Amino acid sequence: MRIGIDARLNYYRPGGIVEYMRHLIHELATLDATNDYRLIQHVRDREMLVAAPNFARINTLTPSHHRLERWTLSVELIPRRLDILHSPDAIPPGRAARRQVITIHDLHYLHYPQFMTADSRRYYAGQIGWAVRQADHLLASSQATRADLVTLLGVPEDKITVHMLGVDDLFRPAPLETIQACRARWGLPAQYLLFVGTFEPRKNIPVLLRAYDLLRRDLPDAPPLVLAGRRGWLYDDIQRTVEALALGDRVIWVENPPRDDLPALYSGAAALALPSHYEGFGLTALEAMACGTPPVVSDRSSLPEVVGDAGLLVNPDDADSIAEALRRLLTDSKLRDTLRAAGLARARTFTWWRTAETVREVYARVMAE
Q1: Span 172-185, average pLDDT
Q2: Helix residue spans in 261-309 (DSSP H)
């Protein structure tokens, strides 16, 4: 088979979808020496994503998320005579291959359209119905996303395959000296609570801040809250909450940390707090578990199935619920040790090899239909 994978997003921005795409390509290059792969990259992207004899590159002019990409990318790809085109970012072009596979990471823009930028809302919500009808098969990142596809968009169950994501080998408990060096670089204390992700409404950071304020009233010596990530949509609302609660000296911002610093940031934390309104998978919770850090996560969307019995589930709308979970982890060393051991064991079951093997099986099945 000649299989195209749309990797144009690699040129434009980092994030979970790009990490998924990069890991998938790397593992397919290891797993599959038979099929012929074409990586579709923007002409300005100079990075070679993989070096393997059955992988080649297609340069395209069509930008990622362009309003005309369904048509212009089709024009560029039709002459390539692809058997399968895989779109890891959900929205495929018009019919540009014999078969089309798309990955749906989440449908948060249907659940919470108010949490999206206007441009993103138009791009995803305006096209997702067409995309799931156009595709021959859908890959979903969790059972929760699969259920959303069935209930919100009427996709037949047999058209969806769930492939849980993996965790990078980078994420493991960091040695003490590495943790200490990372703390020194970012000015962090010996103990802290941690959030990792984009500073945007969907992550529910204002409620986390209110929960942290409640925690400090109950435990005046509670460690500071570290917010690690990058600024996103409506970041100013988060900053205003910090100021309104007078948390300026207790909230530490770690903006745009290098990826190599993340294992030490996780490993040094007493707990990860991820009370998101919605997560298609919740990769940061898995990364924390792989580093031995217990997560406190929402009882919604995919997070319960990722965390299992290795973390504490909370109501993301209830600051008291979040504060109580954080208090338990800070004051109950036996619970913390139990969750740490469970998280390390559970994280080992999430591998990118398994993700890629499922994808390869879907390619074969789709072509056999």
Answers
A1: 97
A2: 262-267, 283-290, 303-307
pLDDT of residue 50: 95
Can you give the pLDDT at residue 41? 95
Q: What is the structure's pLDDT at 27?
A: 97
CB 252 within 8 A of CB 226: yes
CA distance linking residue 92 with residue 103, whole number of Å: 10
d(CA 75, CA 349): 41
At residue 165, the 3 state secondary structure works out as coil
By C-alpha distance, which of 55, 29, 20, 25 is closest to 139? 20
Instruction: Decide: 292 and 272 in contact? Cβ < 8 Å.
Output: no
Token pair of 284, please? 């940061």
Bridge partners of 137? 101
The yes-or-no answer to whether 2-166+351-368 and 176-347 have a common fold is: yes
CA angle 86, 154, 105 (to 5 degrees): 40
Contact 15, 106 (CB under 8 A): no
**Largest CA-CA distance found in the chain, in angstroms, rounded:** 66
275 phi and psi, to 5 degrees?
A: -90, 45
Q: Is the pTM of this model over 0.85?
A: yes
Report yes or no: 198 and 165 within 8 Å, Cβ to Cβ.
no
| Overall CATH class of domain 2-166+351-368 | alpha beta
Taking alpha carbons only, the member of 287, 270, 75, 52 closest to residue 166 is: 287
List pLDDT tens digits, range 122-162. 777 778 999 999 999 999 999 999 999 999 999 999 999 99
Residue 155's pLDDT is 96
**Phi and psi, residue 149, nearest 5°:** -60, -40
Helix (H) or strand (E) holding 362: helix 352-368
Choices 3.30.160.270, 3.40.50.1370, 3.40.50.2000, 1.20.140.10: CATH for 176-347: 3.40.50.2000
pLDDT of residue 94: 85
The domain locations on the chain are: 2-166+351-368, 176-347
For residue 289, what pLDDT is reported?
Answer: 98
Q: How many alpha carbons fall within 13 Å on the CB side of residue 354? A: 13
